[in-house]
Specification:
The two termini are 37 Å apart. The longest helix is centred in the C-terminal third of the chain and has 22 residues, at 293-314. The protein has 315 residues and is α/β, with parallel strands linked by helices. Strands 3-2-1-4-11-10-5-6-9-7-8 form an 11-stranded mixed sheet, with helices on both faces. The protein is built from 11 helices and 11 strands. Helices cover 42% and strands 17% of the residues. Helix 3 (60-70) links the parallel strand 2 and strand 3. The model is unreliable at 2-7 (pLDDT under 50). It folds into 2 domains: 1-126, Isopropylmalate Dehydrogenase (3-Layer(aba) Sandwich); 127-279, Isopropylmalate Dehydrogenase (3-Layer(aba) Sandwich), CATH 3.40.718. It is globular. The chain has helices at 12-22, 37-48, 60-70, 85-97, 111-118, 159-175, 197-210, 225-229, 231-236, 255-267, 293-314, and strands at 27-32, 52-58, 78-81, 103-106, 132-138, 146-149, 182-186, 218-223, 249-251, 272-278, 284-285.
Length: 315
């Protein structure tokens, strides 16, 4: 039933991530409300690729009817029956808290439904760090994976939020084998101006990196999108920086900007986006409802690699 062969050569970065994910042990994953063809098919394909052992959490009759309609095999998969999407989100989080699942996967429910349960103080998956979202993007025109953050959780992040957003994405880059990621802190301009608050935040983050409050990466900002990604644009504007023109990470000023960057890269640049939420007890696969199976597989692979890396650190 594989739907992932087409375009695999175009998205070679994600193909390599999936192969790496297949090289480690599959982990149990609670899939919250897999009640459309894409989310259910992706969970089953991820199992067939040896990435996860899905625990399907949703209305049993609806999931089984959907599987029969689209000829999606469910034999051998655990199905936890709940009445609706809200209950699916809550039960999936419970499975993680009980140690029955090492990964949480968003199915065909709204992001807010899932994240509300994740962020509950007493019954959620909070840690001492703020959660944040990252798109690991495979852009055909860019020579390496590109991380875009945060495009789904923090609407108007404060400076303190951005510190954790930055730390989370740096940790993820390390876990995926990038020893010293280059973080471009985006704004509309390259100069610091009191009229554009995101430039002040960018300058503060860079100074925090200088003072070792943020470690493990090279930071620069404010940088506009062109000189973050294109060395010629950086040179034309006289920017001398080890980050400019070679960014691994684009740290957006707010959710609107991050979401627009990711979707423009996807829909006009032919990019594929693997979505994940960091800073919780376990990796959370958070894809868009419009994402295809290939992007969802890449997201699962990132989550599996991240979970194994974190286990190794605790061992």
């Amino acid at each position: 039933m594989s739907q992932t062969k087409e375009g695999a050569g175009r998205h070679a970065h994600h193909a390599r991530l999936i192969e790496r994910g297949k090289g480690v042990a599959a982990l149990p994953a609670a899939v919250a409300h897999p009640c459309d063809e894409l989310s259910l098919c992706a969970a089953v394909e991820a199992a067939e690729h040896g990435l996860i052992e899905p625990i399907l959490v949703g209305p049993r009759e609806r999931v089984e009817r959907l599987a029969a309609q689209h000829r999606i095999p469910l034999a051998g998969l655990r199905l936890v029956d709940v009445p609706h999407s809200h209950a699916a989100a809550a039960r999936a989080v419970e499975l993680v808290r009980a140690g029955e699942a090492s990964i949480l996967v968003k199915g065909s429910l709204h992001t807010d439904e899932l994240m509300t349960e994740v962020l509950r103080k007493d019954t959620g998956l909070r840690t001492g760090r703020r959660v944040s979202q990252v798109f690991v993007m495979d852009v055909p025109a860019y020579p390496k994976p590109l991380f875009v953050t945060d495009a789904a959780v923090h609407i108007f992040p404060t400076l303190e939020d951005k510190v954790d957003i930055c730390r989370n994405v740096i940790d993820l880059a390390h876990d995926l084998g990038i020893a010293r990621p280059k973080v471009a802190i985006l704004s509309a301009v390259e100069t610091v101006s009191s009229k554009i608050p995101s430039t002040i935040d960018a300058a503060a983050l860079c100074k925090m990196a200088d003072r070792k409050q943020i470690t493990g990466a090279l930071l620069d900002g404010p940088l506009a999108m062109d000189n973050a990604l294109d060395p010629r644009a950086a040179r034309a504007k006289g920017i001398e920086s080890p980050v400019a023109g070679e960014a691994d990470v684009l740290l957006a000023p707010d959710l609107e900007a991050g979401n627009m960057v990711a979707k423009l890269l996807s829909f006009l640049g032919g990019a594929e986006a693997a979505g994940i939420v960091l800073g919780a007890r376990v990796p959370i696969v958070l894809t868009s409802r419009s994402d295809g199976v290939a992007a969802r597989l890449a997201s699962a692979a990132v989550a599996v690699l991240l979970a194994h890396a974190r286990r190794s650190l605790r061992a």
